[in-house]
Amino acid sequence: MTTPLVLVIVMMVLFACGIYLMLDRTLTRVLLGFLLVGNGANLLIFLMSGSFGRSPIVGGGEGETSDPLPQAFILTAIVITFGVSAFLLALIYRSWRLAQDQSDTVRDDDSDLEIGTSDALAGDEVTDEDVAETPETSDDSDDTDTTGGAADSPRTADATTTGKEHA
Fold first, then answer.
1. Res 33 pLDDT > 80
2. 141-163: average pLDDT
3. Cα 160 from Cα 144, distance rounded (Å)
4. What pLDDT digit, counting tens, does each position of 74-111 carry?
5. 129-157 core/surface letters (b: 16 or more CB in 10 A; e: else)
6. What are the distances in angstroms from CA 72 to CA 15, 45, 63, 69, 129?
7. Across the chain, what does the average pLDDT equal?
8. CA 35 to CA 29: how far, in whole Å?
9. Hey, which of 34-43, 114-123, 144-153 has the most confident mean pLDDT?
10. Which end of the chain is more exposed for a tag (fewer CB within 10 A), N or C?
11. Which domains are assigned to the chain?
């Protein structure tokens, strides 16, 4: 069997256009180029598969059976082309979303912006004297006094006002 010249020309045009589109930097054109090259590869496998014969599953009839291996290659190439094109579509969509938003950050809610700009949170400035005057609270686990029972001694009062303990 001779290979039809028209199919060879179509295969060459598919490869040429696909490679030309894949050399562009636009992701959409890369995807279209990949699809054209995939179809050109399928046509190449189809043309190289040889002559047609009877079905390999059905055993009746005269003549030689056709080789099922090129058919399996074409099906595998179709599945691989589909998977890579789905991946490229996801990349194209993600790059489009990033280009539209100009940022990939969480937006502030309107109520959060209102609270942040209000004067309700702005209070008086706390000074060191205010911190020293506020009494310190102790944990519930520290019920025992380590100073020997003298809670009003000048040593503990000095430690609470300065924030330091004397050894």
1. yes
2. 52
3. 16
4. 999 999 999 999 999 998 888 888 777 655 455 677 88
5. eeeeeeeeeeeeeeeeeeeeeeeeeeebe
6. 21, 10, 21, 5, 85
7. 77
8. 10
9. 34-43
10. C
11. 5-54+67-101 (1.10.287)
Alpha carbons 7 and 62: distance in angstroms, whole number: 28
d(CA 84, CA 38): 10
Closest to 147 in 3D by CA, of 159, 136, 137: 159
DSSP 134: S
State how far the Cα of 117 lies from the Cα of 113, in Å rounded to an integer. Answer: 6
Question: Would you say the C-alpha torsion 95, 96, 100, 105 has a positive or negative sign?
Answer: negative
Contact 161/130 with Cβ under 8 angstroms? Answer: no
Half-sphere exposure of 24 (CA within 13 A, CB side): 13
| Beta carbons of 99 and 27 less than 8 angstroms apart | no
What digits encode the pLDDT tens for the residues 103-142?
545 567 788 777 777 665 556 676 777 778 877 776 665 5
Q: What is the pLDDT of residue 21?
A: 94
